Amino acid sequence: MVHKKKDHFYEGWLYHLFVDPALQRVRRMIRAHVESGSTLIDIGCGTGELLFFLADMCAELVGIETSNRMWTYASKRARTLNSVRILRGDGAQLEDFADGHFDYATACMVFHEMEESQRLPVLREMKRVARTLILVDYRVPPPNNIEASLCRLIERLAGQTHYDNYVSFSGTGGLPFLLKAVDLTIQKEISFQRECFHLVQTQHP
After folding, report:
1. Where are the domains of the chain?
2. Are 53 and 31 in contact (CB under 8 A)?
3. Domain spanning 39-203 has what CATH number?
4. CA 192 → CA 4, 29, 107, 150, distances in Å?
5. pLDDT tens readout for residues 122-149
6. What is the mean pLDDT of the chain?
7. What are phi and psi of 115, to 5 degrees?
8. How far apart are CA 191 and CA 199, in angstroms?
């Protein structure tokens, strides 16, 4: 069963045009933590840009996306790449993949968009299908600077539901709280963009 998500007008080619370029640094950071020849699943893959960025070095790449608009756009772009598959589905329901199927599971700027009830189920599935998790999202608590204020404004402009989820994510402790709740320990953390964001990596047996 696919979790229902309302598509937004900016998803698809508009997102690719205006947002994907701003995430280039994040994609480079993730790539630096991924070994050549590995397999990876990206939850909330959006336009698939991270997967396409890794296509020359990974043996298998799977993207999971709930937005029909994003899924349609990414799927069309993936048709020429044998190593990349874009699936429309729910990151909390990855039954098609066995335990430990992937070397890595990633989620980039995804958890703050989710409803609170979705976050732990998705994270548990990521932990189940991959040994190493790489997550990128807002740092909590946010720094007291202009950049953090601008981020908050952008989240508010994305719509009330989106903003409510962002506030909930921040109010409950962000990524460290979620990882602790599923018995995962942060092994590596990199803060960037004036301490507004961070990349965290975890690994389990």
Report:
1. 39-203
2. yes
3. 3.40.50.150
4. 32, 10, 17, 15
5. 999 999 999 999 999 999 999 999 999 9
6. 91
7. -65, 150
8. 6
